[in-house]
């Protein structure tokens, strides 16, 4: 994994011409796609304990580099519930999505019986979303969509059934969507554009073609960019064309880090050290110590690198990428309104942005 530059007494240049500005821009980020319910943040990998849980440190490191808000992904009922619990624990900072990921679709459809319809099986997901919305803990409905690269996890028919039914739920819960699309453009667009969705949404971790991106943007959807969106030169060419007014940024940790083999790595190497000020080195999980990052496990503090690469690829100021993506995320997911509701329900002071 390409590590963020580690802070030192000699900070690197903050502009492309290498000149130090009179006053540095202090970036602010929103990680709109982070899987903090994943067991690796509890120190567990493939069912085996490798180190102590370090979720609190992961969240703290993100906040230290300016990642002020995190939207934790719900991939099924269980993980959606866990995401909400994190939102309740970190009001004003963490928010949740609720939904069933396409790779989990068959886990739902296998329970369909003559007396149990798909709609009834998804009722608890809908109720969780509605309740979470009212309390400010849930700001999006998802992760929903289609993934035709992973039929070994969930078959095509199950994915189509669950996606279509969840789009009906989305019409009722009135939340923006957090969407997943892999190698399924025709079916994905047909179902998505055929639904009556008042709040549109974000197609996250986008790795599609330029034409796919343009069609989604034309239909009012935002594009989520992370390390997986920056792997190849073809990916970078697409990112260059994503309109800033439709751009949002994410890490999708613990996956989708920027790796040394990625086309984006050359840009990451030019990132000023001060943008990663306070981020510790990463080590193999077997050598983990409290306060250190884990090699190969992505986390919110890496969002600085995503924003930096996007700025270099698009040829715009780093500040513009940060501020535009911040405003886009705040507008779509209404984090301020949600934080106010969290404060009301929790009776605790809202954390400042």
Automatic annotation (TrEMBL):
InterPro entries: DNase_TatD-rel_CS, Metal_Hydrolase, TatD-like, TatD-type_Hydrolase. CDD domains: TatD_DNAse. Signal peptide: none annotated. One of its GO terms (biological process) is apoptotic DNA fragmentation. It holds the Pfam family TatD_DNase. GO terms for cellular component: cytosol. Keywords: Hydrolase, Metal-binding, Nuclease. Residues 1-26 are annotated as: Disordered. It comes from the Eukaryota. Residues 1-16 have a biased composition (Polar residues). GO terms for molecular function: 3'-5'-DNA exonuclease activity; endonuclease activity; metal ion binding. Residues 17-26 have a biased composition (Basic and acidic residues). Belongs to the metallo-dependent hydrolases superfamily. TatD-type hydrolase family. This is TatD DNase. It comes from Arthrobotrys oligospora (strain ATCC 24927 / CBS 115.81 / DSM 1491).
């Amino acid at each position: 994994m390409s590590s963020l530059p580690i802070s030192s007494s000699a900070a690197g240049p903050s502009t492309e011409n290498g000149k130090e500005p009179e006053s540095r821009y202090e970036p602010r980020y929103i990680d709109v796609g982070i899987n903090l319910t994943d067991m690796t943040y509890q120190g567990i990998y493939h069912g085996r304990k490798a180190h102590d849980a370090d979720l609190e440190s992961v969240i703290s490191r993100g906040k230290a580099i300016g990642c002020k808000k995190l939207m934790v992904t719900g991939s099924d009922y269980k993980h959606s519930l866990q995401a909400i619990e994190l939102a309740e624990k970190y009001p004003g900072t963490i928010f949740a999505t609720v939904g069933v990921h396409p790779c989990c679709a068959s886990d739902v459809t296998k329970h369909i019986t003559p007396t149990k319809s798909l709609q009834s099986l998804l009722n608890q997901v809908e109720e969780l979303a509605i309740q979470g919305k009212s309390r400010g803990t849930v700001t999006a409905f998802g992760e929903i969509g289609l993934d035709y690269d992973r039929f070994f996890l969930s078959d095509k028919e199950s994915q189509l059934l669950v996606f279509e039914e969840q789009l009906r739920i989305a019409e009722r819960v009135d939340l923006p969507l957090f969407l997943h699309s892999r190698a399924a453009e025709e079916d994905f667009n047909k179902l998505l554009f055929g639904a009556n969705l008042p709040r549109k949404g974000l197609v996250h971790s986008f790795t599609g073609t330029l034409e796919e991106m343009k069609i989604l943007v034309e239909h009012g959807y935002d594009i989520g960019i992370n390390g997986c969106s920056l792997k190849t030169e073809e990916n970078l060419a697409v990112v260059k064309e994503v309109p800033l007014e439709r751009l949002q940024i994410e890490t999708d940790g613990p996956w989708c880090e920027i790796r040394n083999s990625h086309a984006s790595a050359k840009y990451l190497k030019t990132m000023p050290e001060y943008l990663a000020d306070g981020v510790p080195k990463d080590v193999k999980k077997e050598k983990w110590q409290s306060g250190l990052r884990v090699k190969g496990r992505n986390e919110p503090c890496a969002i600085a690198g995503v924003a930096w690469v996007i700025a270099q690829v698009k040829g715009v100021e780093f500040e513009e990428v940060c501020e535009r993506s911040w405003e886009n995320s705040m507008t779509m997911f209404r984090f301020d309104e949600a934080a106010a509701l969290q404060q009301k329900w929790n009776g605790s002071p809202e954390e400042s942005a």
